[in-house]
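# step 3/5: fold
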Amino acid sequence: MLADFAWPGLLFTQGYWSWWVVLVGLAVEFFVVWKVFELPPCRAIRADLVMNGLSASLGMVIVAIADFGWQFSLGQVIFRASHRLEPVVATWGPTAVFSILVSTIVEVLVLYKVFKVRVTRTRIAILALANAITVTLAFLEMYRNPVRL
């Protein structure tokens, strides 16, 4: 059974490293760190690289584990209830949400703890939106250029 089912969390974390997705993601989040979190440009570049490096490293593990748990719990219920017609709802949607949440949490913690930036709900929401853009681009890249197993 395990050999046949697609594990979106693992596929997503493998497909995430396409160069253009990484560059666009860094650019989008740099702008957010610079303008929204009000860091000077050089410090914003450092913060962007540190928070995204840590987010990518931890995210690969955390998203894969969370997705694995999802696949064997509520994901199965949704997948069966939809009569196997909506794998996007049962698998890819939750993987995207997990990815956005994990990235945002890690990045906010880095900005707050390491760079001593004031964090507000509005700033968190804007950073989450930036992460949603990056995750969407990664999913589009996976659709355009699927990972070959």
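# step 4/5: annotate
The longest helix spans residues 41-71.
# step 5/5: archive (pending)
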